[in-house]
Write a structure and sequence with these properties.
SH3 type barrels, elongated
């Protein structure tokens, strides 16, 4: 009969294994490029406004937006639109209209 393993030894079997030391910290922001938010021209703002008026819940969109100290781009389904508070939610990311630099409605893929 086998001897029972202690809880600590059993827990070690399920601990995450880091094959590449330092990789996680590098990916999480070690090489993050910081840039300032740029202002959109009047033409860009009006084109963006037209696109915002066209989107509806369930549409697949590609959106580039300013987040903290850099630009991010995501593609996904619109899960919410709030015209009062001026934001759109793509998947689980709530994005203020003022932070959007590009917005494109994608064809259903």
């Amino acid at each position: 009969m086998r001897e029972k393993m202690s809880k600590e030894e059993r827990a070690k079997q399920f601990m995450p294994f880091a094959a590449l030391r330092g990789y996680d910290s590098m990916v999480k922001g070690g090489d993050k490029v910081v840039c300032e938010k740029r202002e959109l021209s009047d033409e860009e703002q009006s084109a963006l406004s037209v696109t915002v008026q066209k989107i509806k819940k369930g549409d697949i969109v590609r959106v580039k937006f300013y987040n903290e100290d850099g630009y991010l781009e995501i593609k996904g389904a619109v899960t919410g639109i709030d015209l009062v508070f001026k934001n759109v939610t793509v998947i689980k990311e709530k994005i203020n209209f003022a932070d959007i630099s590009e917005l494109e409605i994608c064809e259903n893929e």
